[in-house]
Amino acid sequence: MAMVCGIGVLGLSRGLSQAGWLGIPLLIFLGFMANYTGKVLLKSLYLQKETVTTTYHGLAMVAFGPVGYYIVIFLQNCALFSASIIFLLLSGANMQTLSVAWGMQEHNIGWFIALTGLIIIGPIIGLKTLKEVSWIAIFGILATVLTIIVIIIMPPVLKHADSKYIDNYVKPNTTLYNCAANGSSVNVTLPFNGTYGNFPATINGTVYNCHTFLKPPGYRPLMDPHTDVINGANLPTAFATMVFAFGGHNVFPALACTMRDTRSYGSFLNGAFIAIILLYLPPAVIPYFYFGDKVQNPILNTLFEAAAQLEKGYNIPIYFAYVAITLHLWFTIPIINNPVFLWVEEITTLDKRRGRAMFRALYRTLIIIVQVLIAWKLPYFGELMDIIGATVISATVFFLPCLMYLKLNWNNTTWFEVVWNYIVLLLATLGSVVGFINAMLGLINKVREDEAQKDVSLSRIQFYSCIGGATGFGAILFIAVFWWISTQSKRRSGYRVIS
Q: If you write DSSP's letter for every residue of 144-182 in order, what string do you get?
């Protein structure tokens, strides 16, 4: 659970908003698919009753040779590199929000991203292996649990507090003002004069300084939700958003090899994913129920905006969540970059050269600078998360486990398993391709919005052509892949039973 649950939980309610209420069975189905691919990934580790490897990329080497090995290494490092960019961006956004909320002057988010880079550069340079930071996983779990509690509890609390504004709405041509004079104040209903700021008004011969209690007539409160049963056009984007929350497969082989009895792995994985789904549903459903289509990714921004309309005390739990997540990101960025650094050292042999400490400091700093610059140039958290979810996360969670399992065990696989793997791959292809297109369009439109340019969108015909093209391409491609696997596979037996 510690390796799966994480930052992805911040986008679940947005994924539900994209899909409508149909996103609930979609989230459960994605968890079911991820659970299955996790099992077949571990089944693939045991050939001839022996452990063939203890790593994800090592399994790719066994299944597909050097080509598969380097493809997986590339995808793994792309996933980690991209995740680091997202974490830098989220940390910068959180720091910017907190600084403004605490009365500081507002600055561009890029400066906070750069500040995050400076904060983490010491651990980045000094961290040699992951053995030194295993305790950080405990803090990550605590930060995630705290954030989930805030996400679950605050929407109904804010709704109750916000109800006084909704209940006090008056006639369209009048509004409620709070007027103060000589140390006393009075709440009065005055004819609406188009003024929402402070202004003088004479009431019973006394001049009062008045300001509005309420939002303008016709204003739709943040907590006046609009929800959909289904939003078919955005289902692939919801897939890309939600799959980010299931991206722990890279470490499953290493974790399984630490178990005393791998035969219990299937039951263990079933229990873990049931717990994960139960943990994910409340922070996905509750914000969507209260905020509807106004939920953002990350959801803490929505809670912060809602609380900003009320007394300052309502923001305190949200501040704690912001701080906990930000600290968690500071600890996590060095960890997820560590495999990337070690891979660079391996292929360049920098770890064996004289002056390797200096070289390590230089190239690690350079990599972080590149990540900071990308995050600064593209500060769009939700869109970047969707792109990564639709590409490298989907590949390591769905595509590669199924293909490696079939390649290593084709002759011992039932026709039902073959059909089910085909369905998983086809659905993953549809969600990934169309989700990636939608996410890229969203990113392009964000950039064009900043440059005051017109949005780019797909027509209905273009959208359904993408769906049909992705489905047809995937159907033909995987038939060809399955045929190739069937011609290349050798009979294998003696798998250790993993239920």
A: HHHHHHHHHHHHHHHHHHHHHHHHT---TTEEEEEEEET
**Neighbour tally for 183: CB within 10 Å:** 5
d(CA 450, CA 383): 14
Chain region(s) in the chain for CATH 1.20.1740: 7-162+235-488
- Give SS3 for 208: strand
CA dist 357 → 123, 128, 188, 353, 364 (Å): 14, 10, 71, 9, 11
Bridge partner residues of 207 (DSSP): 202
Cα separation, 190 vs 199, whole angstroms = 12
Distance CA 453, CA 432 (A): 27
Contact 210, 200 (CB under 8 A): yes
DSSP code, position 216:
P
Query: Taking a C-beta distance cutoff of 8 angstroms, is the pair 350, 363 a contact?
Result: yes
Q: Where do we find the tokens 């060809």? A: 480
More confident residue, 198 or 424: 424
- Looking at the domain that runs over 7-162+235-488, which CATH code has it been given? 1.20.1740
Tokens of 420: 């089910």
CA gap 452, 450 in Å, rounded: 6
Residues in contact with 232: Cβ distance below 8 Å, sequence separation at least 6, in sequence order:
none
Looking at this protein, which amino acid is placed at residue 190? L
- Report the distance separating Cα 38 and Cα 54, nearest Å: 14
Looking at residue 498, its pLDDT comes to 40
Are 221 and 215 a contacting pair, CB within 8 Å? yes
Closest alpha carbon to 38 in 80, 3, 66, 81:
3
Q: What's the helix, strand, coil split of the chain in %, to 5? A: 70, 5, 20
- Reply yes or no on whether the pLDDT at 297 is more than 80: yes
What token pair was written down for 376? Answer: 């600064």
Q: Model confidence over 201-243: pLDDT tens digits?
A: 665 666 666 555 444 444 445 566 788 888 877 888 888 888 8
Q: Cα 474 to the chain's mean position, in Å?
A: 25
User: CA-CA distance, 144 to 9, in Å (whole number)?
Assistant: 8
DSSP conformation letters of 275-295? HHHHHHHHHHHHHHHHHGGG-
